[in-house]
Amino acid sequence: MTSTPPATTPPTGVPAPADRIAIDTSRPHPARVYDWFLGGKDNYPVDEELGRQIVALEPQTKYCARHNRWLMQRATRHLARTGTRQFLDIGTGIPTAPNLHTVAQRVNPEARVVYVDNDPIVLAHAEALLTSTPEGATAYLQADAREPDRIAELARDVLDFTEPVAVSLIALLHFIPDADGAYEVVGKLMEALPSGSHLVLTQLAGDFDVERTAQAVEMYRAGGVTLVPRTKEETERFFTSTGLQLVEPGIVWLPDWQPHLGVDEERDGTPVPLYAGVGRKP
Ligand SMILES: C[S@@+](CC[C@H](N)C(=O)[O-])C[C@H]1O[C@@H](n2cnc3c(N)ncnc32)[C@H](O)[C@@H]1O
């Protein structure tokens, strides 16, 4: 690294106390509905209401949300163990232990992690993301994934873009329609990074149970949230369109991505209709 900013310095926006951040509780927000699925306390009645509707439609949703967190842990462990020491996690969500930096820094205490989310509730709770080891660094950046150039510019305060960075877009891209530039966002982020960088993503499947997924999309739409399921081929295009090489086992159902790396995971064979994949920039 050319310069070493002090650990836990956010590149922008020091998290303010929750009561000084404007939180819109009149409509559900993806971060808070997901928090409800995970059994968290940082959600409001509107979030719980949508969460309950989704669980009534798909009773395994809470199990799927937990599997999504376990995938984050497995992918982070894999990357940290194979030498990645910088992480850019976009669409971080409300902190949920263990957070990505804890997993990465358990493998390599020097790991540096920049978290990004556009929801003020995540900013309000961001202190929990800033508990770095002294050797490493963590930072939180309040930004929209649809501004990849701004994210790259600000993340450079903490991450060295001449060394590989793992970008994680975990359960994020299904909130970004193609028309809002989902593929371009991934392309721009990976373009800014050197060879040996990685992309980790999970994506709600559009070719699992088409009818029920359409009902879920409608429930989110009624709550003012756009949800974009994608087929396996459409998910794979995030990697192929940016020239990334898929890490084994390729794009698979989320629990099937390198399950041997799991720690304390529950597995009962229930289908999880999310795709997962990790790709490496050659
Ligand atoms: C389902 S949560 C996933 C959280 C975490 N990545 C995980 O998998 O556990 C999706 C997160 O993406 C964030 N998000 C959605 N659209 C976004 C955007 N355009 N820019 C930044 N964050 C976004 C939401 O606020 C939410 O925190």
TrEMBL record:
So which domain of life are we looking at? Bacteria
According to the record, the residues making up region (Disordered) are 1-20
Known InterPro entries for this protein? SAM-dependent_MTases_sf, SAM_dep_MeTrfase_SAV2177_type
Q: Which residues form the signal peptide?
A: none
Q: Which Pfam families match?
A: Methyltransf_19 (PF04672)
- In Swiss-Prot or TrEMBL terms, this protein is called SAM-dependent methyltransferase
Q: Which organism does this sequence originate in?
A: Streptomyces finlayi
